[in-house]
């Protein structure tokens, strides 16, 4: 039997009582170590569970053979930060288990997708969740902005999940054919805000040059520009940064997008929310407790007043 | 201190280890008994926690005084099925605690909003969540259909949370001025499907009579009709029924809306999903395991093929 067990968001004690029983009675225990992380390391988990924990990197999970072969003859626990089927790769593991005749069972747990309610925004007024990837020299994906605008137009909040890079091989090591790994990277709210600011600045720049483009390109570009222009300027666009949700040193900050680019919310993991343009008064009242300055509080109040 | 503690979706063992510690060290323990339920009663919880549990009905929570007064001088646990801030009323309780100078802390847990991934549909392709209320002789709310269509148009799934009525006073008893309560009611997937079928039938009927209405009404009506007409006929509209998610006798069924109206998925709680018109192949492959008949499986395959 394969148990896909959510271990929550922060500490070893966030596992459920049932999850802990199953971990302790499993022959082998794997931990997904690349889609998310807890604030504690493998050692603390092993100590708390009283069991050895094997780290599973992307290859081990995506190939799946080691885990599924073990689960064919004994109980195996596969631990996931958050709720187990939140990432495509874990749904895929469950499906392949089934194809090989290995029964699986999911033990649910908290997820950032609902823990985000700690900022006071109501879950039923969130639209589609988006992922913000790290930009690099060759690639600057921006499709998340279009999804964000789709939510904004319908007065829905957007939760932005921020990129995590764990065990990424360096370009040089790939060329040498012997992989060495980059240090892990976790996108902060300030980096996410910087990327969003850069995108919005590009919109303005592109607008100035739209008449240089071929007519068909220009029409499509103008359409995108018009959608993006709905957003207020960065100094008046409210954002909410969430760091270490569910942990004792959780930190939530509500401020403008422009300010978020220079806020330090401390160690990972971070998530960013772009609230809907018009907040419910109760949402605004709750959110105001996370405004550090008078300017931040005024911005929250303005979002409620525009309703 | 007020602890808002999520207790998960099904069994007493679904509480987290931290949640259990806090419950056991609290002076008083309240259980929200009206926004959702576990599959077990108060007795099983008390036995498992080793603490008396006080049921909190809507009035007790919305007035809040009893709970907040207790939390002013001692540790109080307020237990909620799912993740604690999922319902507006609990965010409101946290805010009023803060206003009275009572510190609160949230202990997160699993929620149907993410456990729904057990059917194989990816969480990041869900749009806005909707609530389907029971209809009665005087009121037939239908705004959830417009939200569902908003998701459908953007190729997003819709999770429909189905109505729960606990401790509703009878009309007669209200007239007599001494409340007596209706037996609790939990909307099943089949009742939700029936209401949706009735709404869609009304669309067809209204269409036939649109020319009888005043011109301005007719234009608005025609706009709504045109949006609703995007949906395929009920025999070809794929739905997913989810019953007792996260419990050992969880039941998931994928079939047409027309068929869902006569499927019996057993005891509560139920939720209904209307998947996006075009599924990812991996979503369809996962979902197919919940198709009971060949016709159901063909409907799932058709949703993937249209992508």
UniProtKB/TrEMBL annotation, chains A, B:
<feature type="binding site">
    <location>
        <position position="83"/>
    </location>
    <ligand>
        <name>S-adenosyl-L-methionine</name>
    </ligand>
</feature>
<keyword id="KW-0489">Methyltransferase</keyword>
<dbReference type="InterPro" id="IPR014777">
    <property type="entry name" value="4pyrrole_Mease_sub1"/>
</dbReference>
<dbReference type="Pfam" id="PF00590">
    <property type="entry name" value="TP_methylase"/>
</dbReference>
<feature type="binding site">
    <location>
        <begin position="111"/>
        <end position="112"/>
    </location>
    <ligand>
        <name>S-adenosyl-L-methionine</name>
    </ligand>
</feature>
<dbReference type="InterPro" id="IPR014776">
    <property type="entry name" value="4pyrrole_Mease_sub2"/>
</dbReference>
<comment type="function">
    <text>S-adenosyl-L-methionine-dependent methyltransferase that catalyzes four methylations of the modified target histidine residue in translation elongation factor 2 (EF-2), to form an intermediate called diphthine methyl ester. The four successive methylation reactions represent the second step of diphthamide biosynthesis.</text>
</comment>
<protein>
    <recommendedName>
        <fullName>diphthine methyl ester synthase</fullName>
        <ecNumber>2.1.1.314</ecNumber>
    </recommendedName>
</protein>
<feature type="binding site">
    <location>
        <position position="86"/>
    </location>
    <ligand>
        <name>S-adenosyl-L-methionine</name>
    </ligand>
</feature>
<keyword id="KW-0808">Transferase</keyword>
<dbReference type="GO" id="GO:0141133">
    <property type="term" value="F:diphthine methyl ester synthase activity"/>
</dbReference>
<keyword id="KW-0949">S-adenosyl-L-methionine</keyword>
<comment type="pathway">
    <text>Protein modification; peptidyl-diphthamide biosynthesis.</text>
</comment>
<comment type="similarity">
    <text>Belongs to the diphthine synthase family.</text>
</comment>
<feature type="binding site">
    <location>
        <position position="162"/>
    </location>
    <ligand>
        <name>S-adenosyl-L-methionine</name>
    </ligand>
</feature>
<dbReference type="InterPro" id="IPR035996">
    <property type="entry name" value="4pyrrol_Methylase_sf"/>
</dbReference>
<feature type="binding site">
    <location>
        <position position="9"/>
    </location>
    <ligand>
        <name>S-adenosyl-L-methionine</name>
    </ligand>
</feature>
<dbReference type="GO" id="GO:0032259">
    <property type="term" value="P:methylation"/>
</dbReference>
<dbReference type="InterPro" id="IPR000878">
    <property type="entry name" value="4pyrrol_Mease"/>
</dbReference>
<dbReference type="InterPro" id="IPR004551">
    <property type="entry name" value="Dphthn_synthase"/>
</dbReference>
<dbReference type="GO" id="GO:0017183">
    <property type="term" value="P:protein histidyl modification to diphthamide"/>
</dbReference>
<feature type="domain" description="Tetrapyrrole methylase">
    <location>
        <begin position="1"/>
        <end position="176"/>
    </location>
</feature>
């Amino acid at each position: 039997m394969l148990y896909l067990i959510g271990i929550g968001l922060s500490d070893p004690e966030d596992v459920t009582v049932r999850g802990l029983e199953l971990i302790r009675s499993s022959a082998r225990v794997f931990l997904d170590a690349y889609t998310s992380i807890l604030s504690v390391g493998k050692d603390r988990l092993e100590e708390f569970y009283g069991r050895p924990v094997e780290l599973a990197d992307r290859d081990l999970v995506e190939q799946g053979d080691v885990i599924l072969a073990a689960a064919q003859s004994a109980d195996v626990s596969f631990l996931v930060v958050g709720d187990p089927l939140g990432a495509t790769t874990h749904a895929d593991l469950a499906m392949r288990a089934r194809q090989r005749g290995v029964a699986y069972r999911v033990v649910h747990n908290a997820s950032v997708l609902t823990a985000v309610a700690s900022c006071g925004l109501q879950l039923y007024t969130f639209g589609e969740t988006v992922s913000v990837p790290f930009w690099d020299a060759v690639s600057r994906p921006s499709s998340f902005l279009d999804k964000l605008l789709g939510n904004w137009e319908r007065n829905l909040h957007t939760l932005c999940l921020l990129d995590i890079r764990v065990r990424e091989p360096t370009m040089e090591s790939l060329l040498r054919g012997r992989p060495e790994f980059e240090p892990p990277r976790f996108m902060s709210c300030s980096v996410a805000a910087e990327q969003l600011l850069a995108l919005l600045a590009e919109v303005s720049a592109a607008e100035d040059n739209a008449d240089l483009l071929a007519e068909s390109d220009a029409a499509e570009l103008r359409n995108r520009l018009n959608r993006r222009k709905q957003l207020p300027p960065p100094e008046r666009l409210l954002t909410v940064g969430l760091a270490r949700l569910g942990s004792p040193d959780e930190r939530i900050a509500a401020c403008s997008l422009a300010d978020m680019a220079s806020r330090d919310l401390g160690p990972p993991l971070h998530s960013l929310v772009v609230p809907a343009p018009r907040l419910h008064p109760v949402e605004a009242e709750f959110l105001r407790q996370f405004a550090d300055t008078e300017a931040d509080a005024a911005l929250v109040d303005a979002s409620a007043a525009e309703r």
